[in-house]
Structures are given as C-alpha cells and as structure tokens.
Design brief:
single chain; 3 domains; 3 helices; about 25% strand; binds 2-acetamido-2-deoxy-beta-D-glucopyranose
Length: about 325
Amino acid sequence: MSNQIYTGFWVDRSRHPVLGATWTLSVDRATLLASFLSFIVTTIIVNSLFNIVVFFLYFVRPIRKTENYSSEDVALAKPGICGFLPVDPTVDSLNSLSSRQELYETIDARRYATEKYSKEPARFTTSSPFPVDALPFEIIHNTSCPFDESMCLLGANSAITFDTWFLDSHSHLGINAPPEARVEYRWCSTCTVLNVTARAQVFDDTTYEGKPISSKEPLVEVDLGGQPPFNKNHTFLYRINALDPSGYEVKYVSIVPRLLNVWDPIQPLYVPNASTTLVLIAPNNVAYEQKVFDPVFQATTAGSDPEAWFSDYRFQVIACVDRR
Ligand SMILES: *[C@@H]1O[C@H](CO)[C@@H](O)[C@H](O)[C@H]1NC(C)=O
Ligand SMILES: *[C@@H]1O[C@H](CO)[C@@H](O)[C@H](O)[C@H]1NC(C)=O
Ligand SMILES: *[C@@H]1O[C@H](CO)[C@@H](O)[C@H](O)[C@H]1NC(C)=O
Ligand SMILES: *[C@@H]1O[C@H](CO)[C@@H](O)[C@H](O)[C@H]1NC(C)=O
C-alpha cells in the first residue's frame, strides 16, 4: 500500500470534471489521517487485504444524495455504513477481536446476499454502500463437464455455470478512475459434483488424531491429488461424525495458477491456466424435515422419527473451475 495521501481536489469521475471536484484534506489533516490509517491497518485489519480494500472503498467513495450538486451533497460515506471497531486493548485480544469481526462480516455478507440476490422479498433493508445493489450474473444449466467426463457424477452435460460477464471497475465496483485507467473484470465459474467412488477409501479400524475409528464413524481418505507442501498424498482425510450432535463440515483445497499451489490435481481434474477448487461437504447427522433430492444434499434415508430424513451420502465433493 502506498504511504501517500493525496491532498487538494479529488474528482468524482462520474461527474463533470469541474462539478465533480471535491475538496479532500488539508496537508495537516492528511498527516493525521495517515497516522490514523497506519494505526488501523497495522493493528486491526492487517491480515486481510480484502478488508483493507473494502475499508478504502467505504472511506473514500463519495456518495451523492441529490442530483442537484452543492458542496453539501457530497459526503465521504453514508452514515451508519462506515466506522471502526471500538478497541479496548486492555480487554480485547487482537485474535478474539478479528474473529468476532470476521463472524460479524460473514453474517452481514450473508444477509446482504439473501436480501439483494434472492428472489424472495427482502425481510431487511440494508442500505447498500455499493454503486449497484447487486452485480449482474447469469446461471447456465447443463453445461459441459470441465474435467475428464469420468469425473462428473451426473454426466457429461450436467455442470452449472455462473458468469458475471464483464463488470466495469467504475460503474459496477465503484473504483473511481479516469476512463483510460478502468478495467473490466469477468468471473466465470463452472461447478459440478464429482464421482469419487474409485478414489475414496474408507477405514474403519484405526485411530485418527487420537480418536478411535469405527464403522459407525469411519475415516474417509479421498485421493484427487496430493498436497506436496504438506507432504500429503491424499486430498482430504475426514472422520465422519455420526454419533455426537454435529452439523455440516466443509473442507476445501484450491489451485490458483501462479498464486496458490497447495494442491496438485490428478490428471482428469487438471485444467490448464484455470483456478480449481474442491469442496468436500459432509452432512454428518443433519436431519431434514422433508426428503431432499439435490445431488449434493440428497436425503431420503428414514430415521427413527417419521419426520426426519437423513443424508444418503457420507460426503460429496463439488469441484469448481474459475476463469477470471
Ligand atoms: C438439463 O438437462 C436435463 C436432462 O437432459 C433436463 O431434464 C433439464 O430440464 C435441463 N435443465 C435445464 C435448466 O435446461
Ligand atoms: C462412478 O465411477 C465408478 C468407476 O470409477 C463407476 O463404476 C460408477 O458407475 C460411477 N458412478 C456413476 C453414478 O456414474
Ligand atoms: C506418498 O506416495 C509415495 C509413492 O507412492 C510414497 O513413497 C510416500 O511415502 C507417500 N507419502 C506419504 C506422506 O504417504
Ligand atoms: C497457459 O498460459 C500460458 C501463459 O500465460 C500460455 O503460454 C499457455 O499457452 C496457456 N496454456 C493453455 C493450455 O491455455
């Protein structure tokens, strides 16, 4: 991150160059802001680049309240959607603080997604800090298997694709830049359920992490490529949790070319120059009120309670290929 803080006029590129100019900070105040920012960045949000970006978007993006411009119509952020976590260093450890904040952001993000992206009427009305409430994307069913066909559980044309097409850094993402410096970003993700029967081994008479492994709670080893940095030959090792009350458990591995290389996919799952993610979902003893026929969450197994249905699978693996 640059240490430079710009002073003087700042131009909102959505507006006329003259009308869009906004006085930012005086030099004195800029120094104050710089020390404040470095305090915030190094103490609170140091472990997440994303948070820093969001922080800057919140903090710096102007929001117009009316079409008729006057100096009071440009605010640096809407009230109620920006601010800092109150920190009492004598009480809060940084770890508990950041996990609390992460939990809060997860809940908030999920609520935002439900509200702005689902087709059901919203139960809440969160004010959106973004230039568009929801980013456009298209869902395409029955797309072709992005891997070797033998890997796709539901057949050669059963994958699902999510495509944002081209998003504009200015009008969609709100990154204020002159036209020649804007970029377009496209995220296209194709996902499918994998057939891992030939690549999963079930162990039911051993121990794992100090816990006894029995046929009721077996250990599953899935081999879809090793993890060389961790000196592992398998992709997932998971103890099914069936006796204690327990919910879903999710594990994942990814390969992102030139960035993240912890997983070395087997040949049938290798897609050159694309990011690939595997997600293992174990339902454990989640019960459903009705039968479920989804390929991942399928639950048609009767329990002792006539109104509870249990998962037919100990786990399923989803794979997604992202092209950006
Ligand atoms: C996908 O293909 C299946 C079988 O060919 C068909 O039943 C289903 O309607 C298709 N779904 C969509 C959304 O086109
Ligand atoms: C999954 O793969 C195995 C062989 O690896 C094959 O015998 C089985 O029929 C496949 N399952 C489905 C549902 O295609
Ligand atoms: C991985 O597999 C190789 C060859 O099959 C074997 O020599 C090695 O010991 C295995 N490593 C682990 C950690 O299991
Ligand atoms: C992958 O990317 C490299 C460099 O960007 C390129 O030279 C190569 O042709 C690409 N391979 C495929 C299969 O697209």
